[in-house]
Amino acid sequence: MTGMTITTIGADELDGQVQALGALLRDCVHAGANINFVLPFEQEDGEAFWRIKVLPALYGGKRVLWTAISGERIAGSVQLDYDTPPNQPHRAEVAKLMVHPDFRRRGIARMLMGELENEVRRLGRALITLDTRTGDKAELLYSSMGYRTVGIIPDFCLDPIEDRLHPTTIMYKAL
Description:
This protein is an alpha+beta fold. The protein has five helices and seven strands; from the N terminus they run βαααβββαβαββ.
């Protein structure tokens, strides 16, 4: 995609991006993204997520964060969590793939996932796991990228906006 840059954000750089990343998360949740949060969800909630949950993992060296940048704006992000137990040194997990509603349907999620998969290979990991709300467009994206469905767990998560439950699809990809 022309004008789009995918870059990693390290722990030392995250502080300068917390406001923009908080806005990305807030806007995605308000648009219905099922990424662990429900309304009400404000800017400060988004910023707290990055500071409290992501920053320590980045400092711990077991998580990688990528952002997609269009001009001066963060269009999307994804995280790779490879803080696995001793019996799973071959595995890593996709966390919080999100694309801002203004930038969807432009291939950004696919680009972010491509960078993530390259990092998994570089780390010498051979298995990627993830879960996604059953029926979301992300499920189709993952399937098109070679991820296979293991199963579906009913009533797994609350809808971020409405008072109802959704199933989640568990997926994996062997590299």
